[in-house]
Specification:
The protein has a two-stranded antiparallel ribbon. The longest helix is centred in the first third of the chain and has 18 residues, at 10-27. The protein has 98 residues and is mostly helical. Helix content is 47%, strand content 10%. The chain has helices spanning 2-7, 10-27, 34-45, 71-80, and strands at residues 50-54, 61-65. The chain has one domain: 2-Layer Sandwich (Alpha-Beta Plaits), CATH 3.30.70.
Length: 98
């Protein structure tokens, strides 16, 4: 993932997110639910290339990733599935200490 981010290779970033989710489900099968699987399927049908849960458990968030051109369709598909959407952006500079 770090290499993909450093190269700004956004397709590979998506592939790395998808690989992490596949591995996490294999290592901890209880990490997903029918609701999460449904939301991911909706997002992917709308153009998302990757998705995964994040947070410390107990409710957390579902992170969906895809091309900017699919953003609105992905958001609409998730909202139609009952998700509450949270906006985010990728920070290109990282933490800066002055």
């Amino acid at each position: 993932m770090r290499g993909a981010l450093e190269r700004a290779d956004w397709d590979d970033v998506g592939a790395q997110i998808a690989a992490e989710w596949t591995n996490r489900k294999r290592l901890a099968p209880g990490v997903t639910t029918a609701t999460i699987d449904d939301l991911i399927a909706r997002a992917q049908a709308a153009g998302a290339t990757a998705a995964k849960v994040c947070g410390a458990g107990g409710g957390g968030c579902l992170f969906c990733y895809g091309p900017p051109s699919a953003r609105d369709a992905i958001a609409e598909a998730l909202a139609a599935g009952g998700a509450r959407l949270l906006d985010y952006r990728i920070e290109m500079e990282g933490l800066q200490v002055g």
